[in-house]
Amino acid sequence: MRVIDLSLPIADGIPVYPGDPEVKVKITHTYESHTWELRQLSMGTHTGTHVDAPSHMHPGAATLDELPLERFFGASRLARSEDPTWPQGRGLFFAESVGLESFERLAALRPPFVGGELSEELERALLGIGIVTYTGLHGLERLPGGTDFMFYGFPLRIVCGDGSPVRAVAVVETED
């Protein structure tokens, strides 16, 4: 098996969406002062590689803590907008930018989650029908085409969470 990390590193001052909170990572305890090391994190819930709950763009919609864990992992496939068909019952990821023109196809398939470089309009539409979205993914081009892989992108259990940074991982079965 091959494990592919799709996450962006979180570090002090990484770029954020315009208007979002700046990322601050500060060492608050050191080995010398406390005999252990500890960092303080300050960032928005949509920092780096993250998952969006329906409540992110729709008042009263499901929050992260209301969604079952099964919504954040599963069999997945790398899709291309020009593919004649997309598989059903799988999470779908796009290595290229996709917009609202893909919404009807995705709505008909009802994948458990969609990830990649999604336009804000597409993301809003998907969240509106309860499909969680993953954005800020790194290295989707490393995923195999035409075959399933397992995706894992668990959020922090934030009460009323509209989104959360995740460690996004794809596990690809390989022949030994």
UniProtKB/TrEMBL annotation:
InterPro entries: KFase/CYL, KFase_sf
Molecular function as annotated in GO: arylformamidase activity
UniProt GO BP: L-tryptophan catabolic process to kynurenine
PANTHER family: CYCLASE-LIKE PROTEIN 2
Designated name of the protein: Cyclase family protein
